[in-house]
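ok so for the tutorial part 2 we go from a plain amino acid sequence to predicted structure tokens. step 1 is just haveing the sequence, like this:
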Amino acid sequence: MSTTSEPIEWLVVGGGIHGVHIAIRLIAQAGIPSNQVTIVDPGPRLLDAWRRCTGNTGMTHLRSPSVHHLGLNSFDLMDFSGANRRGKGAQKGDFEAPYARPSVALFEAHCDELIERYGLNERHVEDRVVGVEPDCETVTVTLESGRTLTARHVVLALGASSQPRWPEWATALKADGAMVKQLFEPGFSLQPSDWPERVAVVGGGISAVQAALRLVGEGRQVTLLARHPFRKHQFDSDPGWVGPKNMRGFATVTDLSKRRRLIRTARHAGSVPPKLYRSVKRAINDGTLQHVITEAYPTQDDDGLHLQMKDTRIGLDAVLLATGFESHRPGGALVDALVQTHALPCAACGYPVVDSHLRWHPRVFVTGPLAELELGPVSRNIVGARRAAERIVRVAMAS
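step 2 — the prediction. this is what the tokens look like for a chain of 399 residues:
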């Protein structure tokens, strides 16, 4: 087992949207030398899980507006595209109304440029963190490979992508030999040409609809199974949660159980934006997509895989789950051990209780889902990464 001799200043656990943005801000805004920032992530490249998930859904444009990106200033993505602040001058397809939502291709090209500009590929350690041990002066981080790293500050930028939700019935079907995949399971890449003719997509939100339409576009016979009618919302929470309109009141709530209830109520779980809603309704109306609202789920017997309802039986060849992610605290055994060993404070829901700078321990910071009791409903999103970075950078600049 090898250990670095001299601690680095900042080590970021997670190379997704949050981890990359925070690393950029530490270097570009707080003035931390790039060789004093390290990102540890098991993916072969930074943002690997993000790219795989957006690719699987077939998403063409982000749900977020153009001012939500990984650069420093609000209009950096517009500037990168060559557009002015009203979107004029951009290439066709770069932005989509409403809110000048950027294309996935443009957003990722901008990310790549930022990663290159700040030398983050050279600061990426392709490994998995399995242990975090803070003390008074430093934090020792243990990697799956057996290597250890030492840092003065650690940021846990852990998302929910490592814990996709598998209903019990789907796990049982898979064990019985049926073709069942989860849209966001690690390592899975949706290639419609590899899928059989009759596919059930399970889920009622944006990812389920996008994946269903992608499979329809590749000539598959698709049944979209949802437990509820379509819920139409432009964003996954009200825009008032981005700024002081809603967050001022949220900050005054001291009861963390009430904060959790506010977060749950604010999120438009399982929703689809209006343009996607119109697309899926067209597909249903013209008969290219079957939409079934039901609590029933596919089963398998001697006659094969099928969905049996009261008066209808739908034959199937495969099931694709778009059932989102587990709602429990991300980080698994890594975070569990950190809590137990160092008695770090958690609310009744199990999520961290942090200070206004997102410190969970004097040398351990959090972002993403782990920070949502402080940052509110947008904590998991791109804008949540920006809000988290603002707070963490203040500490970096003062230290």
